[in-house]
C-alpha cells in the first residue's frame, strides 16, 4: 500500500473513481496543524496487542496469589462491569430489526461452521499445554470480544491506517492492558491469546483503511457495536454464573450487521 503526497495533500491510490479527487487519486486532507505521519503502519495495533500480553502476564502471576474466595468476588465484579458495557453498547442501536436479523443469521452461520465447538477444542488444547491456568476458552472469547467490539477499535485502526498518529489506539492500549490484568487473574492464560484476534482484526482494518472507511460508516459501526454489546451481555451472564450461552456461534452476527445496514437501514 503506497501513500504519496502532492501540494501538502496525502494521496491514497486505488479508491473507486466516485471517491477520488483530481488525477485519479483519493485525496485525504489533514488539518493544517497536523504535520505527523505515522512512520510505521500497524504501530497502534502492535502497541495494543503488546499491552494485552503484558497485562495478561501480570494478571496470570497475580491470579496464583489470590484465594479462591477473593477470585470469586473479583469475577462477580467483572461480570457486573461487563454487563454494564454490553448494555450501554446494545442500547445505542437505532435499527433493532437489523440487530435481530444479524443475531439470527449469524447464529445459523455459526452453527454451520461449528465455531463454538472449535473454540472449545482450542480451549482444551490450551488447557493441556498450560495446566492449571484457568478457564481457557472462556477467557479467550471474553477478552477477544471486549477488546475488538467498540468504536475505539474501529476508529483507532482507521486513524492508524490513514497516516495519523494512532492516539485512539494508544488510549485503548492503556485500558485493555489494565483490563487484561483483572481478566487474566481470574480467567487465566486464555486472555493472553486474545491478543491474536485483536491484532488480526484491527490490523486488517488498518491495512484496508481506504475501503474500510467507506464501509464502516457511523451507522454501520453503531449497529455492529449493538450486536457485539448483546454478545457481551451474554458473556456477563456466564461470568455471573447465571447461564452459559453459545456466544461463539453468534460471533458472525457482528460482521453480518455490515451488509444488513448497507442494504436495509433507513436513511
Please tag this protein with its features.
disordered N terminus, mainly alpha, 3 strands, 2 domains, globular, three-stranded antiparallel sheet, 4% strand, 267 residues
Structural description of this entry:
The protein has helices at residues 43-63, 68-90, 96-113, 115-129, 136-148, 151-161, 167-187, 195-207, 209-215, 218-239, 247-250, 252-264; strands at 4-6, 9-12, 26-28. The protein has 267 residues and is mainly alpha-helical. The protein has two domains: 1-35, no CATH class; 38-264, no CATH class. It has a three-stranded antiparallel beta sheet with strand order 1-2-3, with no helix packed on it. A hairpin with a 2-residue loop joins β1 and β2 (9-12). α1 (43-63) runs antiparallel to α8. The two termini are 33 Å apart.
Short summary:
With 267 residues, the chain is mainly alpha-helical. It has twelve helices and three strands; from the N terminus they run βββαααααααααααα. It has helices at 43-63, 68-90, 96-113, 115-129, 136-148, 151-161, 167-187, 195-207, 209-215, 218-239, 247-250, 252-264, and strands at 4-6, 9-12, 26-28.
Architecture blueprint of SSEs:
Elements: E1 4-6, E2 9-12, E3 26-28, H1 43-63, H2 68-90, H3 96-113, H4 115-129, H5 136-148, H6 151-161, H7 167-187, H8 195-207, H9 209-215, H10 218-239, H11 247-250, H12 252-264
Antiparallel strand pairs: 1-2, 2-3
Helix pairs in contact: 1-7, 1-8, 2-7, 2-10, 3-10, 3-12, 4-5, 5-7, 6-7, 6-8, 6-9, 10-12
